[in-house]
């Protein structure tokens, strides 16, 4: 699949919605509702810099999340490029999960 070129600046809502397509491979919940996306910036060239974390710094599936992120933002044509800045402070915790994320985890049998 080839990347489609973004023709306009994406909105913050567009980026957040696209990131809902990025699913934590261990938990099966999107990274937005898990609270793994700490923030992002969209530059004038429609490139996005994400501040993200993982549920554990030792996560063996970082590459999977990076690939999904690139597909959701760049390959889709929403953005021209993406850079992920992995952030470990503050550490991720269950308090960062959104209400929707909690509902999804409960549906999978987790107690949150």
Automatic annotation (TrEMBL):
SUPFAM superfamilies given in the database record: Fe-S cluster assembly (FSCA) domain-like
MIP18 family-like domain location: 12-85
Protein name: MIP18 family-like domain-containing protein
Pfam families, per the entry: FeS_assembly_P
């Amino acid at each position: 699949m080839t990347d489609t070129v973004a023709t306009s600046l994406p909105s913050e809502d567009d980026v957040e919605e696209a990131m809902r397509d990025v699913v934590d491979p261990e938990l099966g919940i999107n990274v937005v509702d898990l609270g793994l996306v700490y923030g992002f910036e969209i530059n004038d060239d429609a490139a996005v810099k994400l501040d993200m974390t993982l549920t554990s710094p030792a996560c063996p599936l970082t590459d999977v999340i990076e690939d999904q992120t690139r597909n959701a933002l760049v390959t889709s044509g929403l953005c021209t490029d993406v850079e992920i800045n992995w952030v470990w402070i503050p550490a991720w915790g269950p308090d960062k999960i959104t209400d929707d994320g909690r509902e999804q985890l409960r549906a999978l049998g987790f107690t949150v």
